[in-house]
């Protein structure tokens, strides 16, 4: 049983979907602390001038969890994001197929940033045909932190393998997982080149850049070292 965990980021890059697809069970860590530096409320798309950051304005206080952060929809940011996407991707091969459904999903009302991101990302997971079981950490009644929390979630879900992002190497210890009979395995994702608009290839943009240009093809699964 392979379990992975990730914070609910805004329209994340393809490595997120690679991680989900390689897992049997996936957990949105929605009750961890919100960070302006992490991509909880922003991501990058491509324009003729290069990368463009789409940022969600939020109302939050120091120490708030992602599920406690409110998106400031009264500022009209959703229409601005949709307009930017339309202006820069309307000639992409799969834009007309993908954009209307994404527009509907983004335009819904959500109680929090986490709820919004989980709804959008779950929709995208389903569109790719990924059948991984999805869980939400705030619904699991597990209150430990950092590595201990990861281990407790893995045990709760019956994990034999924890499929981790590489950023966690700074604090995770393989021995701690071994003691609980869980194999710690890090992602082997590396970005593959695909057709993009506006010149040379830019890696690790939002998933929207991929699906507008390539549709919901699972070709990105070939970008790991284990083919």
**How many structural units, i.e. domains?**
1
Number of helices: 7
State the end-to-end distance. Answer: 20 Å
Radius of gyration: 18 Å
Number-wise, the strands total 9
Structure notes:
With 227 residues, the chain is an alpha/beta fold. It contains 7 helices and 9 strands. The protein is 33% helix and 16% strand. It has helices at 14-21, 77-89, 95-107, 113-127, 146-156, 174-179, 207-214; strands at residues 2-6, 25-28, 42-47, 50-55, 58-59, 70-71, 133-136, 161-164, 183-186. The protein has one domain (2-223). β3 (42-47) and β4 form a beta hairpin. Strands 7-2-1-8-9 form a 5-stranded parallel beta sheet. Strands 3-4 form a two-stranded antiparallel ribbon. It has a two-stranded antiparallel sheet with strand order 5-6. The mean pLDDT is 95. α2 (77-89) packs antiparallel against α3 (95-107). The longest helix has 15 residues, at 113-127.
What is the fold's blueprint, element by element?
Layout: E1 2-6, H1 14-21, E2 25-28, E3 42-47, E4 50-55, E5 58-59, E6 70-71, H2 77-89, H3 95-107, H4 113-127, E7 133-136, H5 146-156, E8 161-164, H6 174-179, E9 183-186, H7 207-214
Parallel strand pairs: 1-2, 1-8, 2-7, 8-9
Antiparallel strand pairs: 3-4, 5-6
Helix pairs in contact: 2-3
């Amino acid at each position: 049983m392979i379990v992975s965990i990730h914070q609910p980021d805004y329209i994340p890059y393809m490595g997120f979907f690679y991680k989900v697809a390689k897992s049997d069970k996936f957990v949105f860590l929605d009750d961890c602390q919100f960070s302006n530096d992490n991509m909880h409320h922003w991501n990058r798309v491509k324009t003729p001038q290069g990368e463009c950051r789409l940022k969600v304005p939020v109302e939050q206080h120091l120490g708030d969890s992602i599920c406690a952060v409110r998106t400031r929809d009264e500022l009209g940011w959703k229409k601005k994001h949709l307009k930017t996407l339309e202006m820069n991707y309307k000639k992409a091969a799969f834009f007309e197929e993908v954009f209307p459904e994404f527009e509907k999903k983004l335009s819904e009302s959500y109680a929090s940033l986490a709820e919004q991101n989980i709804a959008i990302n779950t929709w995208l997971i389903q569109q790719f045909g990924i059948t991984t079981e999805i869980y939400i950490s705030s619904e699991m009644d597990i209150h430990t932190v950092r590595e201990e929390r990861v281990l407790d979630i893995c045990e709760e879900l019956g994990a034999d393998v924890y499929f981790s992002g590489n950023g966690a190497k700074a604090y995770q210890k393989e021995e701690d997982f071994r003691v609980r009979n869980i194999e710690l395995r890090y992602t082997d994702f590396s970005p593959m080149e695909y057709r993009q608009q506006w010149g040379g290839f830019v890696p690790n943009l939002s998933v929207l850049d991929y699906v507008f240009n390539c549709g919901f093809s699972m070709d990105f699964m070939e970008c790991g070292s284990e083919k």
